[in-house]
Amino acid sequence: MVTPKKWQGKTGLRRGPVTKILHLAPVTTPTQPHLLISNGTNMSTINFHPSVSLTTTIKHLACNFKNPRILTNLTKNPPHLKPRFRNFTVSMATTPFEVCVKASYTVPNKLGDCPFTQRVLLTLEEKHLPYDMKFIDLKDKPEWFLKISPEGKVPLIKFDEKWVADSDVITQSLEEKFPVPPLATPPEKASVGSKIFPTFVGFLKSKDPADGTEQALISELSAFNDYLKENGPFINGKEVSAADLALGPKLYHLEIALGHYKKWSVPDSLSDLKSYMKTIFSKDSFVNTRALTEDVIVGWRSKVEG
After folding, report:
1. 63 belongs to the catalytic site
2. Catalytic, out of 114, 192, 251, 266
3. pLDDT of 170-194, one tens digit each?
4. What string of H, E and C letters represents the secondary structure of the chain?
């Protein structure tokens, strides 16, 4: 089976997060491969260029149909074969959320290096909710932004025409408003790994190799590694939860910043932690929302050199 990297066409679709893996069935017409989406009355077409067959994940999918059906033309089949339809349902907010995010320092109109912003975007992605990012230059904040965020902080999201700040508040509100798929972490597990980030910052800023900050970080990472060994692969067991979406971006910053400024990396002996990081960092939702390496390095420079 071949997964196409690009597809395009005239559709009634709106960009949004990953919806579902679709196993698409062949039809009989020997024309350019295409995808038909129908609700029994209306129909839209997406043209793409797969090989003989296709298994694909359609990303950022939202549509104005109820209970659409999928029909694909992938092969030149004999005319006696009838097309087959498979039903799927798209469950999604119809209007994208507006989210104020930190802008990149290194590339125009790219997402910057705030781990708290990425936590919010990860939540939106994992819940299949569409969003539009508004890039804010935190070194030169626009007046309109300061009016809605007097403290000049991101992330900010608009709920029902009201701007809401703080990643804790935002992610909790998203969980309450859109409980499916569930991401809530049980209270007894919600603080697992929470000491890693401040300990990492202490080690990163340290100028004294003998001040114990490195050992403190290793201790926290080791405790988390032991937890994963007994309870993993994720904080809440088999499925990703809100606690992972909060910790993942912080571990991403840890890996890049310590690697650059301290030439330090997570010890190989912490194999469960390293596997956890690799899994989280490779998720589509994470790849879609991560900061550029260069931005993470620039973002921490003042903390290290200041």
Report:
1. no
2. 114
3. 999 999 999 999 999 999 999 999 9
4. CECCCCEECCCCEECCCCCCEEECCCCCCCCCCEEEEECCCCEEEEEECCCCCEEEECCCCEECCCCCEEEEECCCCCCCCCCCCEECCCCCCCCCEEEEEEECCCCCCCECCCHHHHHHHHHHHHCCCCEEEEEECCCCCCHHHHHHCCCCCCCEEEECCEEEECHHHHHHHHHHHCCCCCCCCCCCCCCCCCCHHHHHHHHHHCCCCCCCHHHHHHHHHHHHHHHHHHHCCECCECCCCHHHHHHHHHHHHHHHHHHHHCCCCCCCCCHHHHHHHHHHHHCHHHHHHCCCHHHHHHHHHHHHHC
